[in-house]
Amino acid sequence: WSSDVCSSDLEFVQEKNYIVIIVNKPLLSIIVPSYNQGAFISNTLMSILKQDYQHWEVIIQDGGSKDSTHDAVQPFLRADSRISYQSEKDKGFADAVNKALARCKGEYAIIQNSDDFFSGSHVFSEAAGYLNKYPGLYLLSAPFCRVDEQLNELLVTEEKQNEGFIDPMDIYTLRRTFGQSSTFFSIQRIREIGLLSYHVDMVADTDTWIRMATCDPQGQKKIYFGANTWSCATFHQEQRSSDQSKFMVGRAQMFADLFFNEDIKVNIAEKKRIAVIFITDAFEYLIDRKLETTK
Predict the structure, then answer these.
(1) Other Cβ atoms closer than 10 A to 118
(2) Strands 144-147 vs 231-234: parallel, antiparallel or unpaired
(3) How far is residue 114's CA from residue 61's CA, in Å, rounded to a whole number?
(4) E strands, 35-163, in order
(5) What's the pLDDT tens digit per position in 69-126?
């Protein structure tokens, strides 16, 4: 026990029949971009309030919702001063998150959509434990599950991802993918690489993870994937990702942008190979469905 560690810097978290002592308490900024999700946002905020790790702030960035969102968040604002709320028109998901990032005071942030939620009370304490164990991480992610509007878990066939450090090229090629709702990221690092891109709004989170991982200096031993499920993503017809054609086009545009991004420290031949694969995938998807391909 070091004499220069103040008791206020410690977090005591009960884990079954023992106590975990977290020596350094990173401030976690929870960014909640929102637009017309009043039916879900209370569940999102409740999952934050239930956390056993208490060193956090919540930044709700609302795009000027016309539904019950404003009324839904008022009890939470009155109950906890760590929760802030701003509602104004924005240019989409990336713009909303970037506005919230400008207000963040934390060391690490996570983007939790207003229709998603954290899956248990130990998520923040587990994340803080990893951040203490592996200082300087760019990205810290973990599994997530999918649920429907009644919170029933949806069956998926995705391959299980093992715990451990992840090679930056596995992020670039999408051999390893991260769920936005289970991914903490360094605020210093995201500011270094230029925040979220408006140009690829539909896949702005994936684009950000790639740039964080592969921009100079590349993230060797800076990306870690945890063992436990940290969040639940709610799938419903009103969410922005329900239109897969926009997603496919966004991903193609993302790899075209990455190809011309000189800050990305990836071999040019590999950049070209990956870009061709995903641009071709997008065209084939649109052609098969007789959708517009010229935009």
Answers:
(1) 25
(2) parallel
(3) 10
(4) 56-62, 83-87, 108-111, 117-118, 139-141, 144-147
(5) 999 999 999 999 999 999 999 999 999 999 999 999 999 999 999 999 999 999 999 9
